């Protein structure tokens, strides 16, 4: 399975912070924002990843992440000339996907929770072996801001609406999607909405109407953070800080995930740690390389 991180957009709601840099390069506590969605794809076992961003911001992502070899992944980059909807990611990434199953995660979304990795790997398996698409529902107070999924009495998904005036449930569809190999072909059939965008909700509805959409709800013990506003960006930083201080170790450490997955060896991990110098991030990698965390469960 392949993965796409959509890190485009102008981030106008965060001006003046984003006047000279991408929103997805802003810090969320101790790491650039894009580390969090990238870690989600890595936890799912995905190693071929495409990062899509604006023409001006893309070089900065390349300087930060390079070819991905430090993390045991293969990174590619593509330009989104204008933000014309989330489903556009699969039009831009059609050649990259190459007819293979493909996941999409939004570059400003953060996911956390024990057992998350199992959900991710199951979504990969469903796409690869059963031709099923998987999205994740999360209970919110303001569902009218999101794509909303409606359930029947047996909690089966029966409809999905984009930003409805009268939501039929309080479950928003998060910015994490897993699709089988026909996703790019389906995305090319999505018709622009009234606001001129290729809506991901319309793509999800195609799979739902064909009986090929699995909706997994993330309940108690899970956190989904959309960092698109100043307030939510601050809350995300506070959340990550609280989690890391309570367990005395950082989350979404890319090199550590790669090492635990067997994608890089101890020598590469140690070399990465040295490059981070005296930072807490670097110190943590040195402790991992020294074996201070034995059989650590990275399934968050």
Question: What this model shows, in words?
Answer:
- Helix 10 (266-275) runs antiparallel to helix 11 (280-289).
- The strands form four sheets. A seven-stranded mixed beta sheet has the order 5-4-1-6-11-8-12.
- The protein has 300 residues and is an alpha/beta fold.
- Strand 2 (27-28) and strand 3 (31-32) form a beta hairpin.
- It folds into two domains: 2-252, Spore Coat Polysaccharide Biosynthesis Protein SpsA, Chain A; 265-299, no CATH class.
- It contains eleven helices and 13 strands.
- It catalyses: dTTP + alpha-D-glucose 1-phosphate + H(+) = dTDP-alpha-D-glucose + diphosphate.
- Pfam families: NTP_transferase.
The helix/strand class is alpha/beta
Could you tell me the mean pLDDT? 93
In N-to-C order, the SSE pattern is: EEEHEHEHHEEHEEEEHHEEHHHH
CATH architecture annotation name of the largest domain: Alpha-Beta Complex
Residue runs with pLDDT of under 50 for 5 or more positions: none
Pfam family, one: NTP_transferase
Cofactor: Mg(2+)
Family: Belongs to the glucose-1-phosphate thymidylyltransferase family.
EC number: 2.7.7.24
């Amino acid at each position: 399975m392949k993965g796409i991180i959509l890190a485009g957009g102008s981030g106008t709601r965060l001006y003046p912070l984003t006047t000279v840099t991408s929103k997805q390069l802003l810090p969320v506590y101790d790491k650039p924002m894009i580390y969090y969605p990238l870690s989600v794809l890595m936890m799912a076992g995905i190693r071929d990843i495409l990062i899509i961003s604006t023409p001006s911001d893309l070089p900065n992502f390349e300087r930060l992440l390079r070819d991905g070899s430090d993390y045991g992944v293969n990174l590619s980059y593509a330009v989104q000339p204008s933000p014309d909807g989330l489903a556009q990611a699969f039009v831009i990434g059609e050649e990259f996907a190459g007819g293979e199953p493909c996941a999409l995660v939004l570059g400003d979304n953060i996911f956390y929770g024990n057992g998350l990795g199992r959900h991710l790997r199951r979504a990969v398996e469903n796409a690869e072996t059963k031709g099923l698409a998987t999205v994740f529902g999360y209970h919110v107070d303001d569902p009218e801001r999101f794509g909303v999924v409606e359930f029947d009495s047996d909690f089966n998904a029966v409809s999905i609406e984009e930003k409805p005036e009268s939501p039929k449930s309080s479950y928003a569809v998060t910015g994490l999607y897993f699709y089988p190999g026909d996703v790019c072909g389906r995305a090319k059939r999505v018709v622009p909405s009234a606001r001129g965008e290729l809506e991901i909700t319309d793509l999800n509805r195609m799979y739902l109407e064909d009986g090929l959409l699995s909706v997994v709800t993330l309940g108690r013990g899970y956190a989904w953070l959309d960092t698109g506003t100043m307030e939510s960006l601050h809350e995300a930083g506070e959340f990550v800080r609280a989690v890391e201080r309570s367990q005395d170790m950082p989350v979404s450490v890319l090199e550590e995930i790669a090492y635990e997955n067997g994608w890089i060896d101890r020598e590469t991990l140690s070399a990465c740690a040295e490059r981070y110098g005296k930072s807490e991030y670097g110190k943590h990698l040195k402790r991992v390389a020294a074996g201070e965390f034995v059989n650590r469960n990275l399934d968050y």
